[in-house]
Amino acid sequence: MTPQRDDVAPEDLEVRSARPEDEPAILALCRASLGWRQEDPNEAFFRWKHRENPFGASPSWVALHEGRVVGLRTFLRWTFVDGDGRRIRAVRAVDTATDPEYRGLGIFRTLTLKGVAELTLAGDGIVFNTPNDQSRPGYLKMGWTLARRLPVGVMPRGPKSLVAMATSKVPASLWSESTQVGEDATLALAQPEFADEILRHSPTSGVRTDRTPAYLAWRTSFGPLHYRILLASAGDPGGGGVVFRLRRRGDAVEAAILEQFVPNSRTGVRLVRRVLTETGADYAIGLRTSRSAGLVPLPKQGPLLTTRPLAASPPSPGEWALTLGDVELF
After folding, report:
1. Average per-residue pLDDT for the chain
2. How much is the pTM?
3. Do 133 and 185 reside in the same domain of the chain?
4. Is residue 76 located within the same domain as residue 29?
């Protein structure tokens, strides 16, 4: 275990917005404090999230000691649309890192509150995230509130898959399993005409992500995640489809259903079943919304959505209509 510095006080740190020239030091900090493995594409993933996002580059703050970056706090830009079609400027509290030698100085809290104050002045509406059990208490102390538990649903491939699902109570792998089922979503959704057609079946109610062809192209573009899209009718995105990826969870392989762009529930059920049959995944998992189909509720199993006002009030708990594509990974 790295010993903590006992000769540094919080007032010895410089706290400021991150600058482009800080990126090498930020990536080095993430490697040291977040356990990034050399064989994983974490640096490319970081840049994909925070530099290529069509909603905008991620605002970030750093803590420095004697010119050395020892803390990071990053917020991912996002845009929602409410039930009346109005856009909500939002940020998601995502990556945070503290140099192991500088823990215990309140860097996480200082950087987070600095970011919240400056984002509020800039006119961003709300901040949201789905923190784990370890970090959630810290957020609640900083003004976040519990909005709701997001409703998870599953579809097992068959009776034997129920056993695999029940015995794989570990976090899912970040990186995906490769499959040739369906079409390469990166290539398909990079075509604006294809995306326009599939978006005809996009959700139209509740507070949901502002889905555009540019958003879909970016969201499915990171190659190591192997996103696929299975269409109801081959070559015809106008008939609807589901976006998915395969990931390992313990001994089971699950099909993560990111989006169901379907004209009706019958089509949705058929497509999810096809994903399972054609990939051999043990079960499908996703968030249940008015547009989801075939996913059986898993009571008390979904992530907890938390929100905090910035320059606007968060939506009421019942208004949220998020999919797995909105919350996984980040």
Report:
1. 94
2. 0.93
3. no
4. yes
